[in-house]
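// run 5 | inverse folding | seed 20
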């Protein structure tokens, strides 16, 4: 089986590039046999210099840590260990810069592997960067973003606030977890293999892509050779000419056994729909916490004391 990577990146309308990305080593066949092929995207935050430092550091530390995986260590365990090492290093840098809990980065990483159970993917996610699975002309969102919208929507479900209040809340897109927090609690990952078949692709992207393009527009750009998809997606993003277009980074990795496996049949949509809002600057965890306290008052007034406690316990989301 071959792993076919592609990538594209653009600064958008920002004054600096705070997205960073990296791949594993395709030439290391011994490692690929047990560790698979890894791809990672980080979207930095915390100012021009700090966001760049955070994302580049997280990518480098994560890849170095994952490369130390042994055949005895499982892929999910290696991914979590690598994420925590990246978090510790970014926290250390933040302290050295005198900017504790005010800089950080998202992280989305995926590993494609061919083993005894067949082709599969493992992933790990912190923050709101996206992972998508493209198969048989359909696209599916894989990971769950760590944003305050999750807490707001839960409040709506419990009757603690209206849907309109939740949709218009100014902190809706604020991060509730990112690389660079003192105690990393919210992690999204899978522990059982995510099945893949010949010709399947995965896309990893910073939010500059999917907060600009709709699901239909993303899928409509996936034509021909999958290795060219990132270029097509970045180009289509820039065609929107948004005044505040965020940095945009897209990686694609395809598993291929046959030369014709990259051709897509007629398309269908399975991506989750997202309310399209103007790009917003990512908030620090402290600002999110202040917003949480405000919602907690509403929730408790509606009998939601348990709701507030539940959503602030350590959380590692595992897909099985």
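// decoded
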């Amino acid at each position: 089986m071959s792993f076919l990577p592609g990538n594209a990146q653009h600064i958008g309308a920002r004054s600096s590039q705070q997205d960073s990305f990296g791949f594993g080593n395709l030439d290391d066949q011994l490692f690929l046999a047990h560790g698979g092929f890894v791809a990672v995207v980080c979207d930095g935050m915390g100012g021009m210099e700090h966001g760049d430092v955070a994302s580049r550091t997280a990518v480098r530390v994560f890849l170095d840590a994952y490369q130390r995986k042994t055949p005895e260590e499982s892929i999910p365990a290696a991914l979590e260990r690598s994420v925590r090492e990246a978090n510790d290093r970014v926290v250390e840098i933040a302290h050295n810069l005198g900017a504790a809990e005010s800089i950080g980065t998202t992280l989305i990483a995926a590993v494609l592997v061919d083993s005894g159970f067949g082709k599969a993917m493992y992933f790990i996610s912190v923050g709101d960067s996206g992972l998508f699975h493209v198969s048989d002309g359909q696209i599916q969102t894989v990971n769950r973003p760590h944003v305050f919208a999750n807490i707001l929507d839960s409040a709506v479900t419990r009757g603690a606030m209206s849907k309109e209040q939740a949709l218009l809340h100014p902190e809706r897109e604020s991060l509730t977890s990112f690389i660079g927090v003192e105690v990393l609690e919210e992690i999204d990952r899978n522990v059982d293999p995510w099945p893949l078949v010949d010709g399947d692709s995965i896309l990893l992207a910073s939010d500059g892509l999917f907060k600009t393009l709709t699901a239909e527009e993303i899928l409509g750009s996936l034509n021909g050779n999958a290795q060219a998809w990132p270029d097509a997606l970045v180009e289509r993003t820039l065609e929107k000419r948004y005044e505040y277009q965020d940095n945009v980074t897209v990686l694609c990795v395809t598993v291929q056994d046959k030369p014709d496996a990259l051709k897509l049949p007629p398309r269908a949509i399975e991506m989750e729909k997202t309310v399209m809002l103007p790009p917003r600057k990512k908030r620090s965890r402290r600002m999110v916490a202040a917003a949480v306290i405000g919602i907690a008052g509403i929730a408790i007034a509606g009998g939601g004391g348990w709701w507030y406690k539940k959503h602030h316990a350590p959380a590692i989301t595992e897909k099985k």
